[in-house]
Design goal:
Distance between the termini of chain A: 37 Å
Shape of chain A: elongated
Helix content of chain A: 40-55%
Low-confidence stretches of chain A: none
Number of strands of chain A: 2
Mean pLDDT of chain A: 92
Oligomer: homodimer
Order of helices and strands of chain A: HHHEEHHH
Strand content of chain A: 5-15%
DNA sequence: AATTAATATTCATTTAATATGAATTAAATA
DNA sequence: TATTTAATTCATATTAAATGAATATTAATT
């Protein structure tokens, strides 16, 4: 089983943004600190912003920031918004070709398992990822709070 | 999130084998009925057999059959054996490059969520997938029991 | 108004995982 | 011994995902 890097990067962006004390930060800097693709990150940020987790502004002194405090950003909501589970298995997809789909009980179990997966994230917020804030700042080369 | 077709196919093989009343069946026939790759299916069967779910024999009158009755084949065990979760997210992999891994709390949550996913399958056996046996037989073009 | 700095958008390319195909080898049975 | 089947190996194709690059749009500063 695999989680897309899209979700992975989404969490990294949120963690980075949570370290900025409300000040906007730039996609370019985030990409540089994590050494990942700025292009890809741009799409991740766009997603997070259209889902309401981030607020972005263009132009000089622009950038992105958390729309809400970390305690109010539920990780289950983030995962559900960033993972596309429409094709987790072939039978989830309307275009699936598995012959036995009409008589197959496995699909229900897959849905149940996926829900259980998300339910774990539902129990955490971004704040739960920030408990080692000091170390995170150091690793990412940010000023101590 | 995505499950590999390897696991998907594994379930299909087990379902097919469970419909054979203990008689061996051939990989080639399974591949034909599901219209999927025989080569790939061979690897899936090899895995299931090395994990003890199937018993195979070569040569004339050979084939594969369930090693145990369906009620004794736990789906959680099957999923754990067929899914490679070593790289579910980058930080699960020893070769992962994510900078913040040492200070990141997300990994624990991912592990917890993965375990919750498997735990759902733990509650079912192959027998739970066979409740629509009549329909499955018809779709797969097998003789009624 | 012009310039600069940022996100937004689009498209092309690359990459890596996955799946498939094909051919050969080994084992079992008639 | 011939035949049938799984096991094994290697090459190829396919696909989704990720990356790169270029352009457009927006907004703040000078």
């Amino acid at each position: 089983m695999r989680v897309t890097t899209h979700s992975d990067y989404a969490l990294r962006v949120l963690i980075f943004a949570a370290l900025q004390d409300g000040k906007p930060c730039r996609i370019e800097d985030i990409a540089a600190r994590y050494r990942i693709s700025k292009s890809h990150l741009t799409k991740v940020v766009w997603n997070l912003s259209s889902e309401g987790f981030l607020t972005t502004s263009r132009g000089r002194a622009g950038g992105l920031r958390l729309s809400r405090p970390p305690e109010e950003i539920n990780l289950g909501a983030v995962m559900r918004a960033t993972e596309d589970n429409g094709a987790m298995v072939e039978c989830f997809d309307a275009k699936g070709l598995c012959a036995i789909t009409p008589a197959c009980k496995a699909r229900r179990i897959f849905r149940e398992a996926l829900e259980a997966f998300h339910a774990v994230f539902d129990r955490y917020t971004l704040a739960d990822l920030m408990t080692r804030e000091r170390d995170l700042r150091e690793i990412l080369g940010l000023e101590p709070a």
